[in-house]
Structure formats: C-alpha cells, structure tokens
Amino acid sequence: MSDVTKTCEEKMKKSIAGLNEAFSGLRTGRASATLFDKLRVDAYGEKTPLNQVANISVPEARLVVIQPWDKAMIGEIEKAIRTSELSLNPSNDGKVIRINIPPLTGERRKELVKQAKTGAEQVRVAVRNIRRDGNDELKNLLKDKKVTEDEEKQTGVELQKLTDNYISQIDQIVKDKEKEIMEV
Question: Is the pTM of this model over 0.90?
Fold first, then answer.
C-alpha cells in the first residue's frame, strides 16, 4: 500500500469517527449516557465535561440517573442540562438527578432521520474529496517521475476500493442510526 493510500485511509477513518461522534449526540427515544458526552458543567470556575464531575447511569430504558461526586454540584449540573440543546427536564432529590426521556413524536423522529442523513452525506462528500486529493497527489508524483504509470493506475484503483469501502460503512452507520431513531 502506497503512502498516498495510507494517508487517504487515515483521513477517511477520521471522517467515519467524526460521524460516529456526531451520531452519538443524536437523541433517540431510548435513554443513553452518550447523550451527555458534549455537555459541559461550570465546575469550580471551569467548564468541565459532565462525566468528569458525576456518574451517569441508565437503570431503565427511558431513565437517566446522574449522581454528582460533589453534592454541591447538583444545581450546576441541573442548570447545564436545562440550558442544553437536549430539551430535557431534570429533577433532583438533593442527592441525584433523574431525567425521564420522553418518547419522540413521529414528526421529531423524521426530523432526526433527516438530520442523520444530511450528516452522512456531508461525510460521504468528505470521503470523496479525500479520494480526489489522493488522485491529484498521484498525478503530481507521476508528473515529477516519482511513480510509474502502472503504480499510479494501481494506486488509483486502491483509492477507489478504499472509497467504496468507507462509503458502504457510512451507509451502514446511517441505516443503523435510522433504525434506532424510528424504533418505538
């Protein structure tokens, strides 16, 4: 495998990782600790990830329980959840915060699926752009006589196979996410 192919593959892997990370924040009808991965809490004068100041558990399919390590943080955590884009309504008993995850409406599910498909298409375009950049680099190497025509053609074929592989991975990821969102 050539250096060009390796470089392109690393970039494509990062694109897939970015898509998975974006999808982890998409709310489904099911409770999940990953919903709170991007949530930051004002802890001791610093914006700190929620999972670094509290334990997040999912005891039931539609319930998330957040137990702060410092009871004084309960108000800040509750405030961060209320002001987030998650549209959730936490309640606390002085020790833990409970969040009931309401079922999604049919309309909201369709919006989320559309959002997922849009994000997936952006990543597909990014993967294709990586392939194009790799092919451009190959042409420059050929022009500078650093690779032969056969090597350039062979590497181009490898890049196309890589691209097809990553596009099919993206298709599978978005299909799985759509199934998860539409699940009642």
Answer: no
